[in-house]
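User: I'm writing a short methods note and want a consistent example. For tRNA(His) guanylyltransferase, I'll paste the sequence; you return only the structure tokens, no commentary, since I'll be parsing the reply automatically.
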Amino acid sequence: MIIRVDGRGFSRFTKSRFEKPFDVKFHSLMVQTAKALIEELHGIYAYTESDEISVLFRPEWDFCDRSLEKIVSISASIASATFTHAAETVVNFDSRVWLGANKSQVVDYFNWRQADATRCALNGWCYWTLRKARESVGNATSALEGKSVAFKNQLLFQNGINFNELPAWQQRGTGLYWEKYEKEGYNPIQDKAVLTTPRRIKIEEELPMKDA
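Assistant:
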């Protein structure tokens, strides 16, 4: 099972608050929100790009007895509360559930979301490059309509931007997952130092292509 949350009305919300096409602060807020979802709902992996977050769960996950209504409601509430608290501005998220029949379909799902991230990143960079060059909304939109990936890459290159050298999180999104790490502790019964392996969430900002 995968839960996907999306920001409601985020185009309007981000319009005057964040840099375009990408803003490090907004990205950090989305990563914080993804971290809260994977922690509180006991997910095993989360992926975020733009204003959406997808969280993967094990087949045996039985949160709220797998009640669709409760899962959707609670996940949207967690995302909304986390982002609102961190941003100090009230926002809302929608939530939906995706069910896959096998691991292959899960991989296809995340590849699909990563492909969307890359497409949106390229379009966003092209659009805002034109807008910052004082093109109107209409002219910038029409200039990109129906154009190939090669054309868009060339447009950016002509403006001093190499799309392939942009931060990987902008091109391909960000993954979050649990990892074990070694930590030195103390055993009072044995009165000696011990090595433990607790878990923590790893934030992967350098996802390779087709490895969401």
